[in-house]
Amino acid sequence: MERAAGTHHDHGRQPRFLSFVPAAPTQAATLFDMLVSCSSIQGVSWLLASGPIAAENQVLRLLADLAGMPAEAGGCFVSGGSAGNLSALVTARDTARRRRGLGPYDRVRFAVSDQAHSSIGNALRIIGVEPFTVPTTDHRLTGPALRAALLADAAPSDVIGVAATAGTTNAGIIDDLTGIAAVARDFGLWLHVDGAYGGAGLLAPSVRHRYRGIEHADSLVIDPHKWLFAPFDCAALLYREPRLARAAHTQDASYLDALHTDDDTQWNPSDYAHHLSRRARGLPLWFSLAVHGTRAYSEAVEKALILARATAALIRNTPYLELIREPELSAVLFRRIGWSPEDYAARSARLLAGQTAFVAPTGWEGETIARFAFLHPETSLQSVEEIMGTMA
Ligand SMILES: *Cc1c(COP(=O)(O)O)cnc(C)c1O
Ligand 1 centre and the CA of 79: distance in Å? Predict the structure, then answer.
């Protein structure tokens, strides 16, 4: 693909980069990322890095509070949503096997929707857990659909957990978390919530109600390198009961014995995911939050939501365009009436070649359509109008 210099395709941090899920790190976060790298600050263990880890844990606490998770909740920062999902699902699997007295090769399954992110399917394949795929209603996984699928199954007792999505990447749809949490309770399932993209919306008062039920999550992933303005690579992984993650992930090696004491205030991020050495990648976000304050973050997240709603209104008023669905978060899906997949691809290439914007098409129910994914607080409605004008 042609290099998108004007749209900074390499960093994806420009206001007219509207494909995939863009990134828009703050200058404060980027600056601090340089310091973290230059000073080779590590983030493995309390013994070697209690200061950086205490700062990272403040950010994890903020996110846990936004989600309404209990005071004991905690975890660590990992490289991305994929790594977070994998580590969480390992904890879910090992916890279920231990609680149910199962052996390491006994069959277990994990409920997922047909809209779950590809990394969930990959993680299940890696850890040898079969997906139990539950159909969605209008692309949303609901409690009743999960319950019906479990009741219709011949062996529902080997389903050990459910992965819900708080903001699908393509369309920004948040699953019925309250309903799913109730079924998880009734069937003794681990509730994992993938909020890699959408979790940032917890900061936005206008959509906070859509996340009701997220407080029941046993594990939760939110990617600050997406919509919380942190540089790559930064994903927050939280557990309701961190001791379950320690039981699954703590590495047992003689040379590491010194890291592990009985003092639970000594927090080793290496115990909460499938990693050992790690950089203190939560620090750039911590610094930027300290510089800007959380209100600035709420306002920045709201900006993308407001722009998504204004864009939807504009599409509704444009005769040659058709809104696919009302945006719930900051992704807007729409169709140019009469266009073929080649027309969408050609327009995307033209915008890129002209250094106007980077707006790749997407798929929806088998059709190629147009999509905007907003998150940069400086993307203007005027640029959106200009881009839409190229589809006339
Ligand atoms: C982006 C995304 C992921 C993967 O996150 P990476 O940080 O790219 O590994 C997982 N789940 C959802 C819902 C996402 O949007």
Answer: 11
